[in-house]
DNA sequence: ATCGATGCAAAGCGTTTGCAGGGGT
DNA sequence: ACCCCTGCAAACGCTTTGCATCGAT
């Protein structure tokens, strides 16, 4: 975990902004949800529910793991976070909900955001006629998920 | 599930070929492993362990779900299949182990292979200087996973 | 005051494991 | 004959749920 530095979209969200987003989605603002959200935003790579739980306990010692899971689900529902599947092992949570790409370290399993914009025309770059060709075969493509894999070496 | 039509790489594998691949990886040939492999190859979209179990029971009625899981793990180890993560819900199994792309139907959750070659130069097409730029930020990219999403409408 | 959120414990689901007996080499 | 594999059942890890109480509006 690192301190929030304002690099990530949601990180600048003040408590008031978080409250507005939650209420806009029909949820109440609670300190548990705020703590979970702040944990996600200050993490340098996308944590698991258990990692969020351990981190948040230093702020709210008696929070329960079930509450962490419910808070994460609430944040996802309010489009304040996204849930990322993991082939083996627990899911990871990302405080960005906009379309973007991820990097997965094959050595540690860590998942990070890539400083790379979502490219709506990726398929055209692969092959300009691709989407039409796929549609003729029954595949109606509305988006894509790209994950780069390798290893991460902090500099 | 559909009948094997020979379109998929592993589908032409005779029992003898399957035996050779298993033994090359240090495993024995058993009818349970053969039945599980045949089920994967004849499926029109990548099944879950439970779906394999239900399908294989018509061939080996007393097979256990644990054996199906072990057979799938064995096939993955022998590079005769691959395991695909699912955001929510069980994993899916693919009788191809070469790098290729998938299509995920957002309505049914079904996953299919795409008739699309793996493009090693995808990142260069996104941006020729991308890999170098990422490496300077600590991301050492060795491959990528691309999944197209949308809905599938059989024609 | 109302009604949603929390914390706890128990249940749930997909998957893995331990083990005695059966089957492949 | 050896030892791996199977089938059964129990355990497992991650996640969700039921419920009484607490807290936000």
Largest interface: A-B, 40 and 40 residues
Number of helices of chain A: 6
Proportion in helices of chain A:
25-40%
- Oligomer class: homodimer
What overall geometry of chain A do the principal axes of the alpha carbons give? globular
The biggest sheet of chain A amounts to: 3 strands, mixed
Low-confidence region ranges of chain A: 1-9
Instruction: Report the order of strands and helices of chain A.
Output: HHHHEEEEHHE
Q: Structural class per helix/strand content of chain A?
A: alpha+beta
Task: Compute the average pLDDT of chain A.
Answer: 91
Q: Beta fraction of the residues of chain A?
A: 15-25%
Describe the overall structure.
Two copies of one chain form a homodimer. Chain A has about 160 residues and is of the alpha+beta class. Chain A has helices at about 15-25, 30-40, 50-55, 65-75, 120-125, 130-135, and strands at about 80-85, 90-95, 100-105, 110-115, 140-150. A three-stranded mixed β-sheet of chain A has the order 4-3-5. In chain A, a hairpin with a 7-residue loop joins strand 1 (about 80-85) and strand 2. In chain A, helix 2 packs across helix 3 (about 50-55) and helix 3 (about 50-55) packs across helix 4. Chain A is globular and about 55 Å long. The two termini of chain A are about 15 Å apart. The interface between A and B is large, with 40 and 40 residues. Strand 5 (about 140-150) of chain A pairs antiparallel with strand 5 (about 140-150) of chain B. The structure holds a DNA duplex (25 and 25 nucleotides).
């Amino acid at each position: 975990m690192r301190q929030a530095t304002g690099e990530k979209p949601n990180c600048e969200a003040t408590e008031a902004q978080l409250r507005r987003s939650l209420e806009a989605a029909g949820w109440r603002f609670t300190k548990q949800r705020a703590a979970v959200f702040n944990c996600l935003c200050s993490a340098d790579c996308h944590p698991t529910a258990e990692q969020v739980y351990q981190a948040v306990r230093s702020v709210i010692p008696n929070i329960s793991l079930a509450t962490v899971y419910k808070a994460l689900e609430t944040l996802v529902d309010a489009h304040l976070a996204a849930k990322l599947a993991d082939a083996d092992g627990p899911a990871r949570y990302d405080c960005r909900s906009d379309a973007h790409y991820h990097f997965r370290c094959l050595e540690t399993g860590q998942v990070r955001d890539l400083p790379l914009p979502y490219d709506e025309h990726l398929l055209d770059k692969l092959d300009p006629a691709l989407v039409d060709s796929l549609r003729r075969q029954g595949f109606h493509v509305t988006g894509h998920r790209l994950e780069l894999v390798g290893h991460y070496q902090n500099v």
